[in-house]
Amino acid sequence: MNPFEGMVCTAAAADLPLLGTAGHFTGWLCIEHPGAWGGDVIGDEVLGPEITAELAARTSAAQVRPTLIRRPGRNEFTGTRTVLLVSSRPEGSWCERFEITDLRQLFDIDLHLVDGPPPGIGVRVDDPVVLVCAHGKRDQCCALLGRPIAAALAADYPGRVWEASHTGGHRFAPAVVLLPSGLTYGRVDAAAAKAMLEAADADEVSLTGLRGRSCYPPISQLAEVAVREQVPADATALTVQPDPAATHDPTIVGAAVVTHRDGRRWRVTARTVPAAPRQASCGAAPKPATYLETAAVEQLPMLSFARSEQPTDH
Predict the structure, then answer these.
(1) Average pLDDT of 130-156?
(2) Which candidate, 255, 296, 214, 289, places its Cα nearest to that of 17?
(3) Which residues lie in coiled coils (predicted)?
């Protein structure tokens, strides 16, 4: 008998570590849509077939994550939608906000702009923006666990919090993403969510519930957090590069080098650990499960030069 049978997905995943589970996105297009979201933003043509087809092609070409957002609570649609264009690159991340009255205005945006500096097409957003996945049609855990967190944060931080469509990892709900940094969290309660945002406002990183930074692939996500657990560092002090060097240890699945702006470096290796099969979504059939864990954190020789203390875009 499957010990996870009948459980919601968050309960079934409760023993799985969070490290390296953030969705891998470096650009976001967040579109306010107070109405029903369906089960899939693109597949269910939530914004209508004509808009959705073009939006899918454009976001795919620019490698931008299309996300629906709405304010917590009940809100009537006024005809004007807020749009956030976000770059979550490792350095120089930014967020701009503007408003549209016709969804076709989305096609006036060159989504490849997320690969460069702030384009100035909207109002610059300086304070971290919070996305809380509340996509109940995708998975019930997101609605049941995400909406209370969104409401609690919105009460303390009005105007900065949005309920969002699927951001990845509903089994780790409540799932939260900070923009533009892309720092992604899971299993946060109201206190942890508030501490997360307080840290972000202070240019720091809360480690409670941290899954990884969305601009990095899974092993690099793990590597950054592994170093942060050992070394105090502000939000933008560390950068990560995959390490392609071969290893003779068959249990190691990859490595990454984490560099501090002062020149200190660490090589972090990771291994994949098998776990008992379980459902990844509520009501789904069990499937094999694995998770990443840190194998070693090795300090490397310090670079002879350090990154300059240039002001970042955020």
Answers:
(1) 91
(2) 289
(3) none
Q: What is the per-residue pLDDT across 153-186, written as a single tens digit (0 to 9) for each? A: 999 999 999 999 999 888 999 999 999 999 999 9
| Residue from 41, 86, 40 nearest 63 by CA | 86
- CA dist 165 and 163 (Å) reads 7
Query: How much is the average pLDDT of 108-128?
Result: 96
Please give the radius of gyration of the chain, using alpha carbons only, rounded to the nearest integer: 20
Tokens at residue 225, please?
Answer: 């957090």
Neighbours of 116 (CB within 10 A): 12
Is residue 307 in a domain? no
pLDDT band at 38 (very low <50, low <70, confident <90, very high): confident
Q: Is residue 1 situated within a structural domain?
A: no
Query: What total number of domains does the chain contain?
Result: 1
What is each CA distance from 164 to 46, 56, 84, 246, 260, in whole angstroms? 14, 18, 12, 40, 32
Q: How far apart are CA 237 and CA 254, in angstroms?
A: 23
pTM greater than the 0.85 cutoff: yes
Confidence of residue 312 (pLDDT cuts 50, 70, 90): very low
13: containing domain? 9-300
In a domain, 213, yes or no: yes
**Domain-located, residue 178:** yes
Do 32 and 82 meet the contact criterion of CB atoms below 8 Å apart? yes
